[in-house]
C-alpha cells in the first residue's frame, strides 16, 4: 500500500508548511493557475500509467459538440454567434470505481494532509469527495486527434495530474479573465476572437507528475488535439466545497455512460 511519502517528494513540496501553502495560494490568486512540476514521484506516476494502460479498454469514450459556456443554445442568438457556436470535445474516461484500492491516486486523494493543503491553497474551508461512486477520481485518455474544446468551467477550480504526455499536441491553452460569470458579463466579442484564433493564448507547460490547479470559471481554456500514437493520460481529482454533492445524472450519463458502479 502506498503512503504519502512514497507518492510525493515532501522535501521539495512541504505541503504541511504554512509558508509554502501561502506561496502556492498567492500564485494561484495572481495567475489563476498553479503548476507544481514533479509533484508525484516518478515511481508512483509509472504505477498509475501501468494501471491506466491495463484498464484503457474499460474507458467510456465520448465525442460531444458544445458551446464554450457549456449551456443549452440560446435562441436569442444565431448558431454561429459566440454564445452558441459549437466546438468539439472527445476523450475516454475510467471512473472512480475502476481505480484500484491500492492505487497511489486513491491514497493521495484520501490523504487528510493533502486535502488540508488543497483547502488552504484554494482558500476553501474544507474539501469533500463526490457523493456518487463515479466522479471523485477520473483518468482521462486522449488518443490521436482527440481534444478538449474551448470552454469555461462551471466549478470554481480544477485539480489535475499529468500521467503520460503525448508525442505532440495535447497542449493546455488559456486566456485569463475572459468573462465575469458572477456579474453575468459573458464577453461574446472576446470569445469570438478566441474562437477565430485572433487572440494570443497562454500555455501551461507540464510534464508527467505535475500537479495543476486551475481556476477556469472566468478563464476560457482548451486542450489542443493529441498528435501521434502516444495517448495523453490525465487524472482529474474532483472535490467539492460542500458535503454530499453528486454529479448530476445527466452529466454522469453523458461523460460515463452510466449512473452507478
From TrEMBL:
Superkingdom as given in the UniProt entry: Bacteria
Residue ranges of every copy of the Fe2OG dioxygenase domain listed in the record: 132-261
Keyword annotations of the record: Iron, Metal-binding, Oxidoreductase
Residues spanning the signal sequence: none
Coiled coil: none
Keyword Oxidoreductase belongs to the record: yes
PROSITE patterns referenced in this protein's UniProt entry, alphabetically: FE2OG_OXY
Gene3D superfamilies cross-referenced by the UniProt entry: q2cbj1_9rhob like domain
This protein's record includes keyword Oxidoreductase: yes
Pfam families: HalD
InterPro entries hit by this protein: BesD/HalB-like, Oxoglu/Fe-dep_dioxygenase_dom
Sequence similarity: Belongs to the iron/ascorbate-dependent oxidoreductase family.
Name the record gives this protein: Fe2OG dioxygenase domain-containing protein
Organism lineage: Bacteria, Pseudomonadati, Pseudomonadota, Gammaproteobacteria, Aeromonadales
Amino acid at each position: 500500500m502506498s503512503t504519502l511519502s512514497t507518492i510525493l517528494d515532501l522535501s521539495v513540496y512541504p505541503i504541511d508548511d504554512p509558508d509554502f501553502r501561502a506561496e502556492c495560494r498567492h500564485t494561484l490568486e495572481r495567475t489563476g493557475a498553479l503548476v507544481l512540476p514533479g509533484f508525484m514521484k516518478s515511481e508512483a506516476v509509472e504505477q498509475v500509467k501501468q494501471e491506466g494502460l491495463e484498464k484503457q479498454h474499460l474507458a467510456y469514450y465520448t465525442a460531444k459538440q458544445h458551446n464554450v459556456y457549456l449551456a443549452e443554445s440560446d435562441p436569442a442568438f444565431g448558431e454561429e454567434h459566440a454564445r452558441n457556436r459549437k466546438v468539439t470535445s472527445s476523450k475516454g474516461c475510467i471512473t472512480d470505481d475502476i481505480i484500484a484500492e491500492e492505487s497511489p491516486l486513491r491514497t493521495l486523494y484520501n490523504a487528510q494532509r493533502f486535502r488540508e493543503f488543497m483547502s488552504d491553497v484554494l482558500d476553501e474551508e474544507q474539501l469533500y469527495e463526490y457523493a456518487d461512486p463515479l466522479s471523485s477520481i477520473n483518468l482521462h485518455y486522449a488518443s490521436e486527434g482527440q481534444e478538449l474544446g474551448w470552454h469555461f468551467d462551471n466549478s470554481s477550480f480544477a485539480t489535475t495530474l499529468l500521467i503520460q504526455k503525448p508525442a505532440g499536441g495535447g497542449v493546455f491553452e488559456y486566456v485569463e479573465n475572459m468573462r465575469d460569470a458572477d456579474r453575468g458579463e459573458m464577453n461574446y466579442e472576446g470569445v469570438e476572437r478566441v474562437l477565430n484564433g485572433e487572440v494570443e493564448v497562454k500555455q501551461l507547460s507540464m510534464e508527467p507528475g505535475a500537479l495543476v490547479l486551475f481556476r477556469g470559471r472566468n478563464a476560457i481554456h482548451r486542450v489542443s488535439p493529441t498528435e501521434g500514437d502516444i495517448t495523453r493520460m490525465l487524472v482529474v481529482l474532483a472535490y467539492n466545497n460542500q458535503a454530499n454533492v453528486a454529479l448530476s445524472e445527466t452529466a454522469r450519463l453523458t461523460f460515463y455512460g452510466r449512473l452507478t458502479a
